[in-house]
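One chain shown below:
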Amino acid sequence: MELTRRRLGRTDMEITQVGFGAWAAGGSGWAFSWGPQDDELSIAAIHRALDLGVNWIDTAAVYGLGHSEEVVAQALEGMAAGDRPYVFTKCGLVWDESDPRREPKEVGRPESIRRELEASLRRLRVERVDLYQMHWPAEDGTPLEEYWGCLLDLQREGKVRWVGLSNHDRAQLEAAERLGHVDSLQPPFSMIRREAAAEIIPWCREHGTGVIVYSPMQAGLLTGAFSWDRAASLSSDDWRSRDPEFQGTRLARNLELAEALRPIAHRHGQTVAAVAVAWTLSWPGVTGAIVGARSPGQVDGWVGAGSMQLTSRDLDEIARAAAATGGGPVRPD
């Protein structure tokens, strides 16, 4: 299988349409954990993705409070420079070492961002990050102009190659663009959570900003393997156990949507998970999708999205099914 590649915005990076998401690799013991995770399984999953042609990994300092970055470094240890994937990480979420389970704070002070980058470089065992992204808008009173200006400075200094934003709206993108080009945006986007398609993805397309969407399978709901029993068995250490999308009538609608994808998956000889990811990639302006995996088998379940083309018939069927869930546009033009 050869995965399709797309250029990320105006950067020089040609990335596969699917990238490996290392959120779950952070393990348990922090506020937004996916529950316990075996490091060896995470490393095996990363290796499987790379063996299948995936050429980028997305992580963040906050995932496992540094642990995900360490796992990524272990997975890439000893790899020849020409074989290494791009590694993307994020800043702006600062945790309390004395209380790891406390929700991290959204901090934008330039001195904090610089400390975070140095720590990420140590954990990842690299001299430069390929793409450095501000995880969330700062809530510590730091103006966007200051924290975005800091990222641009880090780029000029050569400590990061390209810089982007995650979870920022159109007004914030425009403010940042006035200071310096936003190389990428990372918004949440799935058949259930479609708001990004209304405004910010078109904005990025118009301004040469690459888009790498996260949670295209809506944290597992659109894999075709989720169920009421699985939702009921989520551990208290798994953030999904507190998410409304995994409860009551919303869970029922979400599972119905996943079932509606089965005929489409069958026609393409793919999985429901691959269809869910491929749908996000069918929107003009989306460069790639971040897809998580906790084992090599899970990678096999979605990697087909990286070369899959949904038909007009597929998109019409999905639009009818998706209209009952979430909000935002249901079909790309």
